[in-house]
Amino acid sequence: MTSQIMIDSTSLFDENYQYFRQIARAGKFSVPWWSARFYAQMARRYAPRASARRVLDVGCAFGWVLKNLDNDFETYGIDIADYAIRVAREHSPRSQLRVGDASALREYPDAHFDVITSKHVFEHLANPGETLKECARLLKRGGVLIFGTPNADNPLKKLKGAQWIGVKDASHISVLPPAEWLALTRAAGLQITHAFSDGFWDVPYLPRLPALLQLPLFAMPAALQVLIGLPFLPVKWGESLIVVARKE
Questions:
Q1: pTM (2 decimals)?
Q2: Quick one: 2-246 is in which CATH superfamily?
Q3: Domain segments of the chain: what residues?
Q4: Rounded to whole angstroms, how far apart are CA atoms 118 and 120?
Q5: Closest listed residue to residue 57, CA positions, set 97, 11, 15, 24
Q6: Can you tell me the distance from the alpha carbon of 227 to that of 91, in angstroms, rounded to the nearest whole number?
Q7: Using one digit for the tens of pLDDT, what is the confidence trace for 159-196?
Q8: CA nearest to 64, candidates 120, 135, 12
Q9: Residue 136 and residue 8: Cα distance in Å, rounded?
Q10: CA 187 to CA 180: how far, in whole Å?
């Protein structure tokens, strides 16, 4: 997001960006597929009960989360990459989509959304606390923010080394411990209702053992959490910290 990342977004977040290449290849039951499904499950579970509900996905990429929600919600998405928004319009044609960075959130009115989701975006921002405050402003009373970010307290990150998800992307400039993310969320005026992890899905972790053999060993709890749609994994037991926070 241009105003908060000290890099040239036009060259980084185009069709050659690693994350976009990954989700472009995503098939059913891939990591991007189940991740988008899980965030959509969380949005449905924690959304306030109301007849008209609006969801904004900040950093919507190719629109997979919105695609899972646009039958049940009035859906909106914003992403820094024009390329991503063009693809998202194909995947989620009902959504109201726009190209924009973190500063573009100011263009939405106060108390406009019931749910805001943001999957692995805040670590790209030099000042994520300000964006959290903007998300709080945009939420109605009782509305929820659901966001995920690399888990700096992940005990297995040393096994991944330079390939750990928190450090292998050069645009990750705010990889913070969970305690700091929770403090920033509270400082934005939101109440933490759930903080959990997404499990150890980024195999391989062990040398000389094929990744396919490691997958059931490490990823079974993550798969179960996605299957039942109910978060239960402790914060340290996963690659990502996921936070659900409500505006009182």
A1: 0.89
A2: Vaccinia Virus protein VP39 (3.40.50.150)
A3: 2-246
A4: 6
A5: 97
A6: 23
A7: 999 999 999 988 899 999 999 999 999 999 999 999 99
A8: 120
A9: 28
A10: 10
